Amino acid sequence: MGEQELHQLIKGCLKQDRKCQKMLYKAFYGFSMAICLRYAGDRDEAAEVMNQGFLKVFTKIESYDPSRPFKAWLGRIMTNVSIDYYRANLKMAYAEDLEKAEHLHDASVATDNNLNYADLLAMVQKLPQGYRTVFNLFAIDGYSHEEIAEMLNINIGTSKSNLFKARQKLKQMILDADSSGNYANGVSFNPVVAMNGAPVSPVFYSNKGIRE
């Protein structure tokens, strides 16, 4: 979609034009769904969160600054709505205190390159809500543990602990998939990247990329 067409749709949305809202929804459906899927347990849940996000977009469209990229603004809304959705029913399990969490370290994982986006997304969705949310916020969206603790109303040690355990569970799932050869079809993806934070072309939406 060109910039001129996008701005015309935004102008229409400012006037609560339903046709423009529908066109904007369709244009950014895939982009928004990709973000919500990372936080959701399944596609139905992601769709529910995404629709809440678009409702917020249409009711808060006047706050969008046309001098900034629309995708970045939309992406932040989808991320925030996802966080709000899970924060409402999030129960962090296996919390560690800060002192213990500071000494947790990941071990390297050696696997082949058969794992792809669909595989990794499915694995992330299988994580418990607490682990999944912290993993997305830290490893994908680039928030610090201090920021995550404030956003989710938890302590920093809990954030660090849940990130560590999320990675351990993902590593085990990757090893299990690698040994069984049970991969989905999709874009080629190296699983070591998601675990160790090496630079990679984005397979998830993020301004900052996957990191340690």
TrEMBL record:
Would you say which domain of life the source belongs to?
A: Bacteria
RNA polymerase sigma factor 70 region 4 type domain ranges (all copies): 119-170
Q: Which InterPro entries match?
A: RNA_pol_sigma-70-like, RNA_pol_sigma-70_dom, RNA_pol_sigma70_r2, RNA_pol_sigma70_r4_t2, RNA_pol_sigma_r2, RNA_pol_sigma_r3/r4-like, WH-like_DNA-bd_sf
Pfam families this protein is in? Sigma70_r2, Sigma70_r4_2
| Record's keyword terms, sorted | Sigma factor, Transcription, Transcription regulation
RNA polymerase sigma-70 region domain: which residues? 24-89
Query: Is the keyword Repeat in the record?
Result: no
Instruction: Tell me the protein family, please.
Output: Belongs to the sigma-70 factor family. ECF subfamily.
Q: What is this protein called?
A: RNA polymerase sigma factor
